[in-house]
Amino acid sequence: MKIVRYEDTNGAKLGAVKGEGVVELTRRFPSLSDNTIELITQWASLKPNVERLIMESAPDAALAEVHVLAPVARPGKVMAIGLNYADHIKESGQEPPRHQVWFTKAVTSINGPYDPIELPIASTYVDYEAELVVIIGQRCKHVHKDRAAEVIFGYCAGNDVSVRDWQLRTPQWVLGKSFDTHAPIGPWIVTADELGNPHTMGIRCFVNGERRQHSNTENLVFNVYDQIAHLSQAMTLEPGDLIFTGTPGGVGGAMQPPQWLKAGDKVRVEIDRIGAIEAAMRPERAS
Ligand code: ZN
User: Fold this and answer.
1) Distance between Cα 142 and ligand 1 center (Å)
2) What is the pTM of this model?
3) Which of 11, 220, 224, 282 is found 20 to 30 A from 82 (Cα to Cα)?
4) Rounded to the nearest whole angstrom, what is the distance from the C-alpha of residue 268 to the centroid of ligand 1?
5) What is the pLDDT of residue 286?
6) Starting at the edge strand that comes first in sequence, how are the strands of the sheet with 210-216 ordered?
7) How far is the CA of 57 from the centre of ligand 1 (A)?
8) Residues within 5 Å of ion ligand 1 by Cβ?
9) What is the pLDDT of residue 160?
10) CA 284 / ligand 1 centre spacing (Å)
C-alpha cells in the first residue's frame, strides 16, 4: 500500500494511492486529520479497513490534480547516516568508518516531494544526495537486527540536500545538513509489506536529466537493519521517525570540477518500487 499526504482546496489530508488516483482517508477516518504519525500508531487496527476501502472505492481525486506533501509533516526526529556506500566513501577521500557515522537533520528541513528546494543566502555550495528513507512504525529500543524489519512502517525516497561548506568546516555536520527545505521526502510511503526486501532497489539521482548517481541499495555498507539495531541502542525510535540511509557515489561536490546546484536546476531522486521526487532549486528569499 502507498500512503500519501496531500492537499486540495479543502486543506491537507491523508490518502491511499489507487492507480493514478488517491482514495481519501481523512474523510473516512476524521480523527486522523492529516497526521501520518497518528495513522502509523493506529495502523494495526486501521490496515484491514483501509485495504477494504481501496478495493471498494473509486479514487476521490487524480494525483496529478492535488498538491502532494511530505508524507510525514513533522517527524519526531530525522536521523541520517554518513559514508555508507563504498563509492561515496572513496570520492569523499575518507576511510571506511569502523563505526556508523550518524547526524541529524533538523525536522524543519522537511520539504514536499515536488516543492522548490532553497539555495540558501548563506552558501553557494549546495549538493544533492539520493537516499532511501525508512519510516519507523513502532516505539522501540534495543532492536536486534534480525527483528528490525518488524519496526519499519515503510519507505520513501529522499534527498539529503547538503550545504558542503557549512557541513565540512566543523567536525559536526548537523548545520550543513539542516537548512530549511533540505529534506525533501516522498512522494508517498510504500508500506514495508508491499515493498519487501529493501536491499534490492536501484537508486538514482538526475540533475536536469543528467544521471549523476546510480547504485543499488544492495551496496549499503551498513544495511537498513544494521542501522536500526545500532541507533536503537542509544535512542528510543518512535512512529514516524525518519532514517536517511546514506547516499551512493556521484555527488556534485566530488565531480571535477565540482558541480554545485544552481537556481533553476531540477533534481530528481528515483528508487525502484517506490517512485520519484523531483524539485527545482530556487534562491532563498530574504525575510
Ligand atoms: Zn546523506
Assistant:
1) 24
2) 0.98
3) 282
4) 15
5) 82
6) 117-119, 275-283, 266-271, 202-207, 210-216
7) 39
8) 129, 160, 247
9) 98
10) 22
